[in-house]
Design a protein that fits this description.
The chain has seven helices and 13 strands. It is an alpha/beta fold. The chain folds into two domains: 147 residues, Nucleotidyltransferase, domain 5, CATH 3.30.420.40; 109 residues, ATPase, nucleotide binding domain (Nucleotidyltransferase, domain 5, 2-Layer Sandwich), CATH 3.30.420.
Length: 274
């Protein structure tokens, strides 16, 4: 079984939370193909390609779910968000992270977002953010299948925490005449089968019988979602606006965190009210 730590917060020591109009928050989903952000007080999600321009051409600072260029990621965030934020004041950032991204992804992402002058950075697994976006019952086992452009991830949530996860470096951007959608479908079915075989708690079975939550851009493709439902023998349907579900869930957490009286002491998002 593959497990990941619960989402954690990094808080600057001995610095009071600035309760003034300059205080803002950002929900951020750093994807390999697209970066999505939501800023407190705005109605829409910013959705742009994950690219930076160090010279004459564009490069991708995040590849297959891994941050390969931290300074480039910071430049991209500054270009996307820097001019949209107040000049003064420190902000709360809620950042989604792949379940299997590990310490390296979280550390590099936190380094990159320093360009936005945060007061506190909360990280939350992308799968939990998806569940929060659709107000799923976190007291029940949940299976989240996130089909992105470059990575597909299957995550089991138990009581809101990641208890098992699998991923493959295969996404919708890889599909062509030589790589049909069936390859993604077969990969998801194989990951789900392995998780079922290795689960001795029946949580995985319960989550599958409920039906997985389908997220990511791949969930917008009926040829993938219908085939997954048939292959998994489960009611598999896309969540609303699946491509932005993770950032919308992070935005929900952001709104809750802003009202939490002990935000500077939070070390785990499970301490926040649901």
């Amino acid at each position: 079984m593959t497990t990941t730590p619960r989402p954690q917060a990094v808080t600057a020591p001995d610095r009071p939370w600035p309760l003034d109009r300059q205080c803002s928050g950002i929900a951020l989903d750093l994807g390999s193909a697209r970066t999505r952000a939501w800023i407190s007080g705005r109605r829409s999600v910013l959705d742009v390609p994950t690219v930076t321009f160090p010279g004459d051409g564009a490069i991708r600072p995040i590849q297959r779910g891994t941050i390969v260029d931290t300074p480039g990621t910071a430049r991209m965030l500054d270009r996307l968000l820097g001019h949209r934020l107040p000049r003064f004041g420190r902000r709360l950032i809620v950042l989604t992270a792949p379940a299997l991204g590990g310490v390296a992804f979280r550390a590099q992402a936190r380094t990159a977002v320093e360009v936005l002058r945060p007061h506190t950075v909360l990280t939350v697994p992308s799968a939990r953010a998806v569940a929060m976006a659709v107000a799923a019952d976190l007291t029940r086992p949940l299976l989240v299948v996130d089909i992105g452009a470059h990575v597909t991830e299957v995550t089991l949530l138990t009581d809101g925490a990641v208890t098992d996860a699998r991923h493959t470096a295969l996404g919708t951007s890889d599909l062509d005449s030589l790589t049909p959608p069936a390859q993604i479908i077969d990969a998801v079915v194989a990951m789900v089968t392995t998780m079922l075989e290795q689960d001795h708690t029946f949580h995985m079975l319960d989550a599958l019988q409920q039906g997985p939550l389908l997220a990511g851009g791949g969930a917008l493709r009926p040829d993938i979602t219908y085939a997954l439902a048939r292959q998994l023998h489960a009611p598999a349907e896309p969540v609303p606006a699946p491509h932005t579900a993770a950032v919308r869930g992070a935005a929900k957490l952001l709104r809750v965190a802003h009202t939490h009286p002990s935000i500077t002491g939070i070390t785990d998002t499970s301490e926040l009210p649901h």
